[in-house]
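Honest question from a wet-lab person: if I give you the sequences of every part of a complex, can you actually get the arrangement of the whole thing, not just the pieces? Trying it with mine:
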Amino acid sequence: MKKSRILMFLGVLLPLMLFVFPLWNITLEAPQYPTPLGMDIYINDFADANPHDIKNINLMNHYVGMKYIPDAIPEFKIFPIGIITTTIIGLLIAFKANYKWYLYWFILMAVLSAAGLYDFYLWEHDYGHDLDPKAIMKFTNPDGSVMGFQPPLFGSKDILNFRAHSYPQLGAYFMGVGMLLSFIAFFVGKKGK
Amino acid sequence: MKKIKYSILAFLGLAMVLTSCQPKAKTTNGALSSGAAEKVYVAPGEHDEYYAFISGGFSGQLSVYGLPSGRLFKVIPVFSQDAEKAYGYNEETKPMLNTSHGFVPWDDSHHPDISQTNGELDGRYVFINGNNTPRIAKIDLTTFETTEIIEVPNSAGNHSSSFVTENTEYVVAGTRFSVPVPQRDMSIKDYKGNFKGALSFISVDPEDGGMDIKFQLLMPGFDYDLSHPGRGASHGWFFFTTYNTEEANTLLEVNASQNDKDFIAAVNWKKIEEYVNNGGGKKMPSNYAHNVYDEHTHTATSTMKKEVLVVDPSEVPGAVYFLPTPKSPHGCDVDPSGEYIVGNGKLSADLTVHSFTKMISAIENEKFDGEAYGIPILKFEDVLAGTVSQPGLGPLHTEFDGQGNAYTTFFISSEVVKWKLGTWEVIDRKPTYYSVGHLMIPGGNSRKPFGKYVLAMNKITKDRYLPTGPEVTQSAQLYDITGEKMELLLDFPTIGEPHYAAGIAADIVKANSKKIFNLEDNKHEYATTNDNDVKVVRNGKEVHIYMTMIRSHFNPDNIEGVKVGDKVYFHVTNLEQDYDVPHGVSVIGANTSELLIMPGQTESFVWEPKQVGVWPFYCTDFCSALHQEMQGYIRVSPANSNIDLSWSLGE
Ligand SMILES: [Cu+2]
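Yes, you can. This is the full assembly:
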């Protein structure tokens, strides 16, 4: 088998690791939590980084009127279907199609990932800004607007007494490497031509 | 006259000027210049190196301090009610203080000892004795709570306790006072020959730590003072000091101090265990409480046991011997190798050390010097390993550093003396302030002491602390023993009487310390683990409130339909699942104490309202920004009212 095709196979299969490892993680650090509170986001679930973390995040957040982190969101149904679909498409490409399609698959994945990130941003924005009007504590920004508690999409940020960190996890890295491999496969295929 | 006054004033003024001009070098002297302060300094955010479990003596409790800082971390209620933790007040722990004499909410807690595996501290449990109404308690070091108390029948003044064998096979409970066995109405004058001293061997289940009296050895009617297990070669033996071998029953300070030598009783418990396992001993009717706290139901149960197995030592030849020891020995201490048995004869000028090897060969050669009540007495010279001569006045207790050195406290001369095993020479002595009783080296009662510090526990502290009325705090003193000479590092005050202590490296214990109780594992009979299940139920004159608490409210927080004369049970579950977030609750006029409920735990208290009204209840532990809002009301109507029970939250 051609080298490019092997690479493509590998690249297509790697995103399946999202069913095993988390996609993203949000961690909240504060002095009163020697073990920080953390939430792992899988493609089909929110999970405690340490036992009861989500419950305790909810308890903290209710003071400023944030909603409880939902048990499920519609994305948890859509994302797995998306991953399985792109994997099937990718496998078909790897089996049948010529190297140019490797690039199309890469672009498809890139577009979908960007859409996923944007969706994640919207969810975070809603989670951090749609506050209960009866909230116990109200904070405003220096300009007088109501303070939001949106965690960063990527990176670290101070939110009141917490420092929030938001970073991709192993699942996301597998997907990234998979996409990179498909991209390389395209070039290897092109060279081999 | 006036002139004199002025000149005195002038002189004082001059003196003040002069002294205030003095360079201020003096403040850098003392402890600081020797680095003592640095050695006990534990920077903010850092942990101490050792846990010290120091008994509370007449407070009936066990305190937890950090070493080297001397900071108090916790007072664990054991034998005494403790309003701070609701221990002995709430429905869950009241059974822990049940005895054959009824509810006994106090004791005199003396000698803690830490569980061992292969002769080394394993940090699972601490055992401690109740002296006055004989009991042995077990404290679980995952929760630092008392989880089991067993009463010891046929005993009185449970003093030579609670020391463990090297795999925690047994905890012993030796009686200080001999008493009639079984108890009966008889003349005290007939003490001699008729009273018995019970040495109880309490087995500890290797899996769950469950305690049970395996057998009691009914010894002659002496007073049994302290004890220590053998280890290494002497594992399988237990050694008990005795006094009042005269068997006096009055004015003991004189009458029990006549014999030049008393005994250390050497008990081959393995031999007796074998005898008992083969059907030996006899079952004797008895009545004693066995109280067990279950971590899943968060509730204790008390069972009355009806018999105990007793063994007459004369019926097990070769199991018990007496080692003559001068003079009214107190501490009975075995060195980490198991070879040396130190008898701290408190009225003796010397310190007597016996040799286990010599003891065995004397037994094999049957070199006896008579017998007492069928128990062979060995010849003093045949078992003596050596004598530390004239080391101080009133030796009480010896501990070992694992480097071949021993450290003995001297009560009368108020000092700690370091001496060498084998050569018996005194190496160093340091004063204590004052009247030192016992001392502790972490791991001292094990094969592997952590020989870095010694802690002396003192009775009298007249010039050490700010006065607090006629009673001044008792205290502990910490010495660095890493060098040839001991160095006093720190004084710190203690609760009750710091009678005895056990210490352990913090790393062995702290990783296993529980942070929360899992709500899913809460099997309490009245637990409410879900807000949908809160309710108030009437059962005749009893009202049961199934309540939850979480930052920062109770559910329900408005309750109506309770009547004067009802017996109202608050069963409160803390729904938190976060480390170190307990909540408290109490209600006006409660005759018990508040409840301090850990995350995931359920506790109950009884309230018997006697007055009509609307009465508040509130959280007693500052728990969050909205702690002050964590409150509710309960309406109490007249006894003949017909208001139905109702309850609500947020309406
Ligand atoms: Cu509270």
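Two things worth pointing out. Chain A has a mean pLDDT of 92. Strands of chain A lie at 24-30, 33-41, 46-48, 155-159, 162-168.
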